[in-house]
């Protein structure tokens, strides 16, 4: 392999990594470099050190070890049959880059992935080696996110969990059929088994910590920021309902911290049967909103789907509002009496606002003026709430309520 | 009162004295020390009448808010602690105008701190020193150098650094943190050798097909751009984005990379037909690949039976549960625990039994972070009997113990109540004996402890009968 200059490699291997949406550096244990006298800390809350003009946060050095790949997944720029220029970092080079960037406060840490070279096990070994160099040779205490290669030996995954804060295995496509057609070498059951071994590893570590003898050192943590995955949206025919179904299965089965939804983005040298369209960014956004409703608002998938005819989320209004418009009988909700679970169902009230309402109403009845201090926008709430100085009357059931929220249809430009 | 902007210790000691002396907020005039002398003297401070206790949270907020650039802050803060000393619930009154102001000011400071943690950029000083040293120039909106320095200390313990701002500086040298006066941008190097790599990375990680300038500017406001080395690339990246996407769209798909086949040397696993399964190990692989019914779609893996090929007794359960699904082995979850204990009591050695399930994939309903077990339908049990029969053919047990109704259906092909079959030894076609009993998970579900103990005893009796049969 001819040695490419580092800038060239960086450019190729960062470009190849940008289709992975995950960039989180949060949710791990608190660590610092005071005891080790090395470099690095994690503070629980992640930090976005920069933003690219695509609006995405840059928190980690997100790169591939190599973009050579023996798989031929058609949605992927690095598939074996693609004519993209190839490059490969040595583990030492990646460690060096990470430290150089970290010391200048550009990043929170490293997110390392790779094309599959030689075998799943060999590739996983190389990723683990980078993490080992950082942690052991350089006393690096910053954040490390490693991609787990589906099908790699569980022993390697166990080792990865000892060095990394987070592990992730991408399910790539939401349905079995999609995966079979677009990524013939990837097997959904292999991906699920890999996720299962991460969950088992984490649970074993917690068990070991619980049953340790008093006075003995804590056993090592296993991927304290948990595991995540990514699904590509809009490359295949999967509906939002299928996507959320897969997401709920993954959340419940493997204790994922996050499922990322990544709008399929056209890639250079694309496979001919993929949509050469703009990425469906609004659809991606709605899926994230639905995901939040599932995780933080007590919604079941079937409820979200009540406001999503045909299994597709409404693109013009958010999924909570869509649900509320279908279930008007639930509203209006009395801000001063409703239980927390019901307040969470009010369009326009987020978890923070609900917490503040519940805390404040102990001191007296909340009126509209008070709500203005506690929430972002009272206007959106009006049809759905009751306060001592406000009753929506017929507004809650009015036929044109949807129009009140949906952005006005744009007038088509007349051809001159 | 005379206080230095952003100096919490100074403000706190002044405020503490005033509060203890019972000096009302309207009787105090606060002035920043750089604005010259205060209108009134400091005579009110002396009259200390013991410390006044304040909520810890309020002090934490005050420590941040005192860094606010608004000159009214010391006075407003004093008014709030004056009230808080008389009303312990004050902070919870989020609709109160002053509390609202406090929360907003605190939010502004925290945001400023967060942005300083994020957007400060170090540049390397000199070269080849034993201990690397770096310097950064940053222009925060408020007086937050002392609030942020501990973060950089925790993070960059192993190198020397200095942070210079217009108001103050923080220096970490030889493992000691110190503060000093403000400075100028000129004190910090104007370049760093790694910045080229960082800018290359910034350009490469940008996806031109998803331009969202407002999202970027909301989180990284323009006022920070002048000190961010990568920000000079924003305009050119945006200018070229449309054309790059257009080129992607227009470029004809090139023919496949000629090396494709060389790279993809591996052939997919030899497809083993289910009928060709010749050993229990092969059977386990085949079960894992089974797609006869849709249960495989959501389960992690097919869980085949486990135990010696010549076991005399075969135990059949219903289906793998959460843990069995994750670990790929039968009876390793909570029900497996119950079973293990009961087996021991009955004098049966688990290692000499063959344990399996009527259905090989886990059927569940996702509910938040958990998967709730769902009973398999008779259709699913019947579909999966193909595998159970294979296992029976390999192991050829003398006795089968069915645990629960699903197992009974799986073995006999007929639905019957356990009650009607229990306490007797039945004979199956081919001479194999059958004992029907309950599933151990049934014991876990019984809320009544007395009843659970009775049922458990009956379960052990059934297992003991099985042992007697086998010896």
Structural notes for this entry:
The complex is a heterodimer of chains A (416) and B (471). Chain A has 416 residues and is α/β, with parallel strands linked by helices. Chain A is built from 15 helices and ten strands. In chain A, strands 3-4-5-6-7-8 form a six-stranded parallel β-sheet. Chain A has a two-stranded antiparallel sheet with strand order 1-2. A two-stranded parallel ribbon of chain A has the order 9-10. In chain A, helix 3 (120-138) runs parallel beside helix 4 (154-163) and helix 7 (240-254) crosses helix 8 (281-296). The radius of gyration of chain A is 24 Å and the shape is globular. Chain B is an alpha/beta fold and 471 residues long. Chain B has helices at 8-20, 56-65, 73-84, 97-119, 145-155, 195-205, 213-219, 234-250, 260-263, 280-288, 322-327, 334-346, 378-395, 405-412, 418-421, 440-445, 449-470, and strands spanning 2-3, 31-32, 123-125, 133-137, 160-164, 168-173, 176-181, 313-317, 354-357, 364-367, 370-373, 399-403, 426-427, 433-437. In chain B, the strands form four sheets. In chain B, strands 3-4-5-6-7 form a five-stranded mixed β-sheet, covered by helices on one side. In chain B, strands 9-8-12-14-13 form a five-stranded mixed β-sheet, with helices on both faces. In chain B, strands 1-2 form a two-stranded parallel ribbon. In chain B, helix 13 crosses helix 14. At the A-B interface, helix 1, strand 1, strand 2, strand 3 and helix 2 of A face helix 4, helix 5, helix 6, helix 7 and helix 8 of B.
């Amino acid at each position: 392999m001819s040695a490419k200059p580092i800038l060239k490699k960086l450019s190729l291997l960062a470009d190849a990594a940008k289709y992975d949406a995950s960039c989180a550096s949060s949710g791990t244990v608190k660590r610092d470099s005071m005891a080790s006298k090395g470099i690095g800390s994690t503070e629980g809350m992640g930090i976005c050190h920069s933003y690219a003009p695509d609006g995405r946060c840059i928190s980690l050095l997100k790169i591939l070890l190599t973009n050579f790949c023996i798989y031929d997944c058609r949605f992927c720029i690095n598939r074996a049959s693609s004519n993209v220029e190839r490059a490969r970092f040595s583990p030492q080079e990646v460690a060096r880059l990470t430290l150089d960037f970290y010391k200048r406060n550009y990043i929170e840490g490293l997110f390392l992935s790779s094309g599959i070279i030689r075998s799943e096990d060999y590739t996983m070994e190389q990723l683990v080696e980078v993490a080992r160099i950082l942690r052991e040779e350089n006393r690096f205490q910053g954040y490390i996110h490693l991609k787990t290669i589906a099908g790699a030996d569980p022993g390697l995954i166990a080792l990865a969990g000892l060095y990394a804060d987070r592990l992730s295995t991408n399910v790539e496509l939401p349905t079995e059929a999609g995966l079979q057609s677009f990524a013939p070498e990837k097997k959904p059951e292999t991906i699920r088994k890999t996720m299962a071994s991460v969950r088992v590893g984490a649970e074993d570590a917690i068990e070991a910590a619980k049953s340790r003898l008093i006075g003995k050192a804590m056993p090592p943590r296993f991927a304290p920021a948990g595991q995540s995955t990514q699904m590509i949206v809009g490359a295949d025919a999967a509906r939002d309902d299928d996507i959320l179904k897969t997401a709920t299965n993954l959340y419940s089965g493997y204790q994922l911290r996050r499922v990322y939804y990544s709008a399929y983005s056209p890639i250079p040298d694309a496979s001919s049967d993929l949509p050469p369209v703009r990425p469906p960014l609004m659809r991606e956004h709605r899926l994230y909103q639905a995901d939040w409703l599932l995780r933080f608002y007590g919604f079941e998938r079937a409820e979200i789907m009540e406001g999503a005819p045909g299994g597709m989320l409404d693109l013009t209004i958010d999924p909570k509002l869509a649900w509320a418009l279908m279930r008007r009988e639930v509203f209006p909700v009395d801000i001063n009496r409703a239980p927390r679970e019901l307040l969470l169902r009010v369009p326009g009230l987020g978890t923070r606002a609900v917490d503040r309402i519940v805390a404040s109403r102990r001191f007296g009845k909340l009126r509209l003026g008070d709500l203005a201090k506690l929430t972002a926008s009272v206007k959106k709430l009006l049809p759905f709430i009751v306060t001592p100085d406000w009753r929506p009357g017929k507004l809650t059931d009015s036929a044109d309520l949807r129009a009140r929220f949906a952005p006005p249809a744009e007038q088509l430009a007349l051809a001159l | 009162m005379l206080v230095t902007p952003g100096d919490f210790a100074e403000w706190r000691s002044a405020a503490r004295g005033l509060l203890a002396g019972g000096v009302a907020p309207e009787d105090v005039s606060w002035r920043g020390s750089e604005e010259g002398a205060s209108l009134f003297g400091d005579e009110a401070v002396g009259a200390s009448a013991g410390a006044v206790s304040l909520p810890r949270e309020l002090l934490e907020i005050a420590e941040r808010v005192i860094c606010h650039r608004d000159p009214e802050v010391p006075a407003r803060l004093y008014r709030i602690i004056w009230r808080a000393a008389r009303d312990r619930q004050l902070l919870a009154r989020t609709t109160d105008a002053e509390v609202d102001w406090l929360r907003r000011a605190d939010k502004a400071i925290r945001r400023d701190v967060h942005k300083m943690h994020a957007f400060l950029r170090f540049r390397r000083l000199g070269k080849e020193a034993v201990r690397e040293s770096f310097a950064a120039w940053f222009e925060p909106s408020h007086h937050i150098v002392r609030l942020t320095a501990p973060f950089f200390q925790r993070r960059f313990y192993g190198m020397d650094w200095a942070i210079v701002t217009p108001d103050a500086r923080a220096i970490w040298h030889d493992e000691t943190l110190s503060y000093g006066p403000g400075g100028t941008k000129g004190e910090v190097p104007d370049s760093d050798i790694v910045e080229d790599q960082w800018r290359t990375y910034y350009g490469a990680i940008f996806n031109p097909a998803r331009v969202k300038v407002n999202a970027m500017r909301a989180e990284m406001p323009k006022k920070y751009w002048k000190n961010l080395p990568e920000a000079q690339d924003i305009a050119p990246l945006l200018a070229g984005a449309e054309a790059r996407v257009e080129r992607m769209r227009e470029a004809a798909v090139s023919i496949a990379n000629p090396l494709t086949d060389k790279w993809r040397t591996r052939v997919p696993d030899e497809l083993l037909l289910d009928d060709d399964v010749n050993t229990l190990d092969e059977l386990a692989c085949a079960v894992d690949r089974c797609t006869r019914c849709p249960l495989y779609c959501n389960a992690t893996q097919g869980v085949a039976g486990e135990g010696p090929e010549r076991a005399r007794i075969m135990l059949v359960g219903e289906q793998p549960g959460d843990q069995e699904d994750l670990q790929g082995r039968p009876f390793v979850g909570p029900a497996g625990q119950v079973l293990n204990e009961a087996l021991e009591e009955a004098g049966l050695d688990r290692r000499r039994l063959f344990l399996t399930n009527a259905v090989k994939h886990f059927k569940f309903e996702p509910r938040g972070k958990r998967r709730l077990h769902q009973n398999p339908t008779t259709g699913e049990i019947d579909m999966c009997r193909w595998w159970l029969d294979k296992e029976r053919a390999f192991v050829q047990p003398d006795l089968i113990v069915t645990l629960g109704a699903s197992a009974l259906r799986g073995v006999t092909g007929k639905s019957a109540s356990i009650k009607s079959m229990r306490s007797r030894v039945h004979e199956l076609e081919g001479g194999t004996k059958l004992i029907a009993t309950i599933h151990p998970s049934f014991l876990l579900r019984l809320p009544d402890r007395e009843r659970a103990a009775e049922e458990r005893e009956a379960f052990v009796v059934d297992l003991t009968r099985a042992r007697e049969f086998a010896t």
